[in-house]
Each structure stands twice: as structure tokens, then as C-alpha cells.
Task: inverse folding
């Protein structure tokens, strides 16, 4: 139970700390926003040159991001969305046109972690995917599932990494989700030859895994995670089927880092992250993303912590990113991780219109991802059914493990 009055007292007592943090954050955000706006009129080559000079001078490490040629083409870091609607019906009509005869796909997963209810560790992963061809008749969509047990041996086999059973289950889910994505990429190969509109696969999460993230305490199998993402990126490039890593709430600081490098500032740890640069109302003015659908220019991601799998044979990055205002201006925009080849093939605008349209249908979140999530979710009731099935299986096969009496009692009473 939360004691609300005690919470109110604690907040009131720390009011000064919050006010001071807000003031410092606003000053810091204003500085970064001003420097981002000042890039208007510059060229990508100029920004790249300044970053290289800063590194050569020993002032800073490499920039975590660099702008694409969109910087000079748009003459701004922000690309305004050209359409405006008077009613929600008009926006939905536009979304229908943007998605008509275009195949979109999304996969998501859920899991049952091992608990103390069973005397032997066992877990499960469920992954669902939703594929919609958006035909005029509204038929032809696919909603499918894959359910896998994670048996005791797999849960205990951590290759000496000291990982928990939860880490093992998380990796299995991650791999199954990306397996489903790759199957879609293969099915859609040759879309250009068939005269189809560009298909789009959505993945709920980042397409970039840095060593600092995967080698932390929470993730114990960096090679497996990286291999699964890298295989997906390679297949997207080979099949020329776009895949979008959708991050609804991103805390990345690639642009913040880039701005510090070209300003020749020493390594800092600012409290500002990239997405806030586009949503912050600094100095009483409008945020950089002033309208729904506005986006940033495409940037290459060049984090030093990225492993070799995220660079091509010539040493160029395989993944870039865009920030998109998929909800009301002033709220935090989403980050989209997109393979660099999509920008090189001139598909960015088409793919982003598909993302925007999915967000219109999904009321601020891609409908395909929303549907996959709903299909994949495992409820508390489902967990009870799982335990019951395990108990019955153990009894029927005279196996030496049991579900706890407490769990059995709950199942009988509900």
C-alpha cells in the first residue's frame, strides 16, 4: 500500500531540488537546441569535417552520429510534415491511402519466467506476429503465434556467464521475435519486380546494440543478441525489404554527443537526451517539432561502442535513425532505427509515410505493433493455465517435479 500523504510530504520537502534540476535542465536543453538549429545551412561534409578535426585535436572521441545529405537538401535538421487535416476522418483517409496494397508486419513476444511454484525450473516464451497486406477487401492478413518451452537444461546452461534464468528467457524471446521478422523479409523479397509498394517490418526496440549495453549486468549473452540483430540487418540489406526499429521512449544521446564533438567540448554527461531536443519548449518558444508528423533528418549512427557487426565491409555504419513526432507536439517523439540502405535507395519518405499511417490507425502507436503485442501477451490467468498443464503433465508421466500446493490451491479456487 502506498501512503499518499507521506508521498506528498516527501515531494513537498524536496521541492527545491526539483526546481533546481528543472532550471539547470532547461538551460542545458536550450544550449543544445540552439546548436542543433545552427546546423541549418551547413552541409553534411562540413559537419563531418569538424567532427574529424575535433577528434584529431584530441579534444573528444568520435561523434556518435553524423547527419546525412538531407541536412543540405532540407536546409534544416527538422523536416516538417507537409500535410494538415481538419478532422480525424481526414487523417484516417490519408492513412488508408498510404497503406493501401502495402504489406506491413510486426512481431512481439511475452514470457512466463520460472518461479518457485514448480520444483524444477521451466519457463515459456510466446511470440506473435501480425502481417497485413492492406487489400481493398480487408482480407489476407495473418496473425500467427509461436510458443516454446524453455526446459530446465536450457535455463541452467549459461556457458559460465553467471546469467540468471530471466536472462536466458529474454534472449530466447528476442531471438524468436527476430526469427519471425526475418521470415517476413524473405517472403517479401522481390517486391520491386512484382511492382509492389515498399513493405515495412516493425520491430519493437532498437536495431543497435552497443557493447556498453549488452555487457552490463542485465544482459549476459552479448554475442547472441548481436548475432541475431546483425543477421536481420544483413537480410534486410540483401532482400531490400525495410525494417524499422521503433523505440517509443528513447534515452539515446547520439545527437547530444555529436553536438559536443563538433563544438570541441570535452566528454560530458548531460541530463538531456536526443528526443528532448525536439520536444522541449525552450525560452517560451515552440518546440522544434511543431506539428504532428514532423521528423528529423536521417543520421548515421557511429557510436564507438558498436561492434564490428554494425559496420559494412568499407567501414560505413549499417544503421541510422530518425526522430518522428507520432503524438501531439510537445510530447516526446519516437526514435526510428532504420538501415542505412533504406536512405541510400531513396525510400525514407515512403517508409516514414507508412509509419505515420500506422500511427494514425493506432492512435499514436503503430497499429501493427499494437496488434502483435495484444496477440502475444500472457496474462496472469494464462500463467495459471500453464502451471496446471505442467502439473498434469508431471502426474501423467510420473515425473519427479511438482507444482507447489499453494499454486495448486489457487488454481482449484479460481
Result:
Amino acid at each position: 500500500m502506498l501512503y499518499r500523504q507521506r508521498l506528498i510530504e516527501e515531494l513537498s520537502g524536496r521541492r527545491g531540488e526539483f526546481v533546481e534540476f528543472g532550471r539547470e535542465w532547461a538551460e542545458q536543453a536550450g544550449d543544445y537546441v540552439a546548436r542543433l538549429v545552427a546546423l541549418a545551412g551547413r552541409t553534411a561534409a562540413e559537419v563531418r569535417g569538424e567532427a574529424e578535426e575535433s577528434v584529431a585535436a584530441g579534444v573528444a572521441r568520435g561523434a556518435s552520429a553524423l547527419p546525412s545529405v538531407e541536412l543540405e537538401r532540407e536546409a534544416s535538421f527538422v523536416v516538417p510534415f507537409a500535410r494538415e487535416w481538419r478532422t480525424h476522418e481526414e487523417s484516417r483517409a490519408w492513412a488508408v491511402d498510404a497503406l493501401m496494397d502495402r504489406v506491413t508486419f510486426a512481431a512481439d513476444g511475452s514470457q512466463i519466467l520460472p518461479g518457485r511454484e514448480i520444483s524444477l525450473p521451466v519457463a515459456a516464451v510466446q511470440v506473435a506476429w501480425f502481417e497485413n497486406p492492406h487489400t481493398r477487401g480487408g482480407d489476407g492478413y495473418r496473425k500467427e503465434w509461436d510458443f516454446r518451452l524453455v526446459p530446465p537444461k536450457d535455463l541452467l546452461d549459461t556457458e559460465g556467464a553467471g546469467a540468471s534464468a530471466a536472462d536466458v528467457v529474454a534472449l530466447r524471446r528476442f531471438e524468436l521475435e527476430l526469427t519471425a521478422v526475418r521470415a517476413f523479409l524473405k517472403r517479401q523479397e522481390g517486391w520491386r519486380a512484382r511492382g509492389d509498394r515498399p513493405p515495412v517490418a516493425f520491430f519493437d526496440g532498437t536495431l543497435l546494440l552497443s557493447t556498453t549495453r549488452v555487457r552490463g549486468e542485465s544482459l549476459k549473452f552479448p554475442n547472441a543478441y548481436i548475432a541475431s540483430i546483425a543477421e536481420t540487418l544483413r537480410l534486410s540489406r540483401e532482400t531490400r525489404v525495410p525494417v524499422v526499429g521503433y523505440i517509443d521512449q528513447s534515452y539515446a544521446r547520439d545527437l547530444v554527443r555529436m553536438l559536443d564533438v563538433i563544438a570541441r567540448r570535452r566528454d560530458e554527461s548531460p541530463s538531456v537526451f536526443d528526443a528532448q531536443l525536439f520536444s522541449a519548449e525552450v525560452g517560451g518558444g515552440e518546440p522544434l517539432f511543431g506539428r504532428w508528423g514532423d521528423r528529423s533528418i536521417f543520421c548515421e549512427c557511429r557510436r564507438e561502442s558498436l561492434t564490428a557487426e554494425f559496420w559494412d565491409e568499407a567501414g560505413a555504419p549499417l544503421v541510422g535513425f530518425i526522430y518522428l513526432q507520432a503524438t501531439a507536439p510537445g510530447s516526446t517523439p519516437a526514435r526510428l532505427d532504420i538501415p542505412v540502405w533504406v536512405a541510400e535507395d531513396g525510400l525514407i519518405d515512403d517508409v516514414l509515410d507508412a509509419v505515420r499511417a500506422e500511427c494514425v490507425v493506432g492512435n499514436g502507436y503503430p497499429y501493427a505493433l499494437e496488434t502483435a503485442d495484444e496477440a502475444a501477451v500472457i496474462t496472469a490467468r494464462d500463467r495459471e493455465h500453464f502451471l496446471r498443464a505442467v502439473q498434469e503433465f508431471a502426474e501423467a508421466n510420473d515425473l519427479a517435479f511438482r507444482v507447489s500446493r499453494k499454486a495448486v490451491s489457487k488454481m482449484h479456487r479460481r
User: Anything to note?
Assistant: Residues 379-414 form one domain. Confidence is low (pLDDT under 50) at residues 212-220, 406-414.
